[in-house]
Predict the 3D structure of the following.
Amino acid sequence: MLNAMQSSLPRARRLVGGFWELTHQTLMMVGLFVVAGGAYLYFQPQAMSTLDRGLTQWVLARKTATDELQALAQKPADVLLPVAQAAPPPASTLPTLTPQQRTVSNWLARRYSIAPNAMAQLVSAAWTVGRQEKLDPLLILAVMAVESSFNPYAASSVGATGLMQVMAGVHRDKFAPFGGPQASIDPLANMRVGALVLKDAISRGGSVRVGLRYYVGATTDANEGGYADKVLAEQEQLERVAGLLPKAAAPMTASAGHAVSPQALSAAAKSTVATEPLPVQQKHASLT
């Protein structure tokens, strides 16, 4: 055992010596940095002044924050309670809906699991935009339901975004009044631009059905993936919810000025009713 202890002593001495050497070198490097820093501050007095101002501002900010916390702690609880509680939004900021609009809003909110107040805002905006652009507001809501299920942050693989899945890069000019393409995720901006694109598509197509095909970027009925049928079925469902008569016997147009061809009417009469919205990840790649 004595031999073992004697053999371990040189190893211990080496470890202690290495530790001392490392400590010595570290302290020497720290000293060099301190000397270099002192020399820099000595020859650069403006740096010293900047450092002094920074430290002074930091100390003053800490003192101000401490004083505010102490003052807040001394206030009675009944004074702090109104500040801690969020004030409810005034009733004037909530949209005033007609009974018909309220029925549609409540039905959509339940079906798509959207907050009732948020859906009320969208329904009110759809009626306003529809009146301005001479579009059926239920058609606008149907497009939003099929395109995004009322998710304002929805995005497709080809870059379409927002409630109506508008290609913001393609329609930069239309988003310009709202701040540019980045406004495409703003619900109201997306709805207004989407309504303009839809109105233009319907005008070019001559009917809602053909306009919806243009809206989704399809060239023929064969490659539009049943998109028009889904939107028109959703619109018909909303008409039933709103208590309106189905438009099966009347031309489906964006406004009274757009007539539908007999071929389009025949195709609409034979369309399959699809009451479930098309998920965003499964819908046809929109070119709008």
Observations:
- Residues 2-43 form the longest helix (42 residues).
- The CA atoms of residues 37 and 97 lie 71 Å apart.
- The chain has two domains: 2-84, 98-282.
- The two ends are 88 Å apart (CA to CA).
